[in-house]
Amino acid sequence: MAEELTDPAEGFAPLRIRRVVRETADAVSLVLDVPECCSHRFQYKAGQFLTLRVSVGGRDLRRCYSMSSAPVEDELRITVKRDPGGVVSNWINDTAAAGDELHAAPPEGRFTLTESDSSPRELVAFAGGSGITPIMSLVRAALAGSDRTVKLFYANRGRDSVIFSEPLARLAEQHADRLTVEHHYDEDAGVVTASAVESFAARVGDADFYVCGPTPFMDTVETALLGAGVPKQRLHLERFTVAAAPDTVTDGDAQACEEVVIELQRQKVTAAYRQGDTLLQTARLQGLKAPSSCETGSCGTCMARIVEGSARMLNNDALEPDEVEEGWVVTCQALPTSSKVHMIYE
């Protein structure tokens, strides 16, 4: 049977919901069936995410949701928490049912486990609220596929908002010698402080640190860990929030852009720049099938290299500092900051 994709240029495929699991009053997990013809494209690493494309109220929307399953489980599962202003998260929580079909792009993301060596380091994770989703995937993978010791600090407003409460308890019981879970409840102890982070980190040895959750929580954890001497290369962050694109290029940019040169698949196009557009939007306006997926600066699918001129990124959770220094940008979040920009999709 031939592969049937909703959009061959972008790679979205139809995935049917096999099962809906109500995790809390405002969070659900969706177990997804991948068509056999697409199975090789939906193999994933623990900690990665899917980009869903859904139509809600006549609008075509894209959102990224992390896998909470691990590859060793032979199952693809995402977990979605309701966001008070989230059109798609509310739609999924309110209407998703077994048998429904969603359209998803293949897994992306770099929030993954480091390569194991002869003496694998401890895995130390800090999760806040729904930030437990990719962390749960990492924890499951580390426990099932390695001998690593795992320590998890999990913060929530209260006990009713703990996602995966029972699965975590079962894992802690099954792996009592390797998994430690410390719960923090704001309703009891207030918001997480740097001292709480430092206290938890002080009890670990040689480790890799993974952090995911709301921005204030992540900022507190990151600052505390770096202050405690954790090497930056051992600290892995997964952020869910993205800066909104401005309507126009700001006065802080070097100068208004006039021209963008785009090289893609042996095509070279010169386009007049429309103020406020990202480089990805500029490419699309020229009819180019530029690669893209999440459109939040998280997956790196749309990355291109700037060989002339400059641009700033509104959000970048995909590229390493050395890649940025070499001129790479995620074009979905990149705004020109020079009169001319020449970029190449490689």
- What percentage of residues falls in helices of 4 or more residues? 10-25%
Q: List the quaternary state of the chains.
A: single chain
Largest sheet strand order: 4-3-6-1-2-5
**Apparent shape:** globular
Count of folded domains:
3
Count up the helices. 8
Which structural class do you get from the secondary structure elements? alpha/beta
- CATH structural fold name of the largest domain: Rossmann fold
**Count the strands?**
18
Biggest pleated-sheet summary: 6 strands, antiparallel
CATH top level class name of the largest domain: Alpha Beta
Name the CATH architecture of the largest domain: 3-Layer(aba) Sandwich
- Give helix and strand order, one letter per element, not per position: EEEEEHEEHEHEHHEHEEEHEEHEEE
Radius of gyration: 21 Å
How would you name the CATH homologous superfamily of the largest domain? Nucleotide-binding domain of ferredoxin-NADP reductase (FNR) module
Distance between the termini: 31 Å
Mean pLDDT: 89
Our estimate of the beta-strand percent is 25-35%
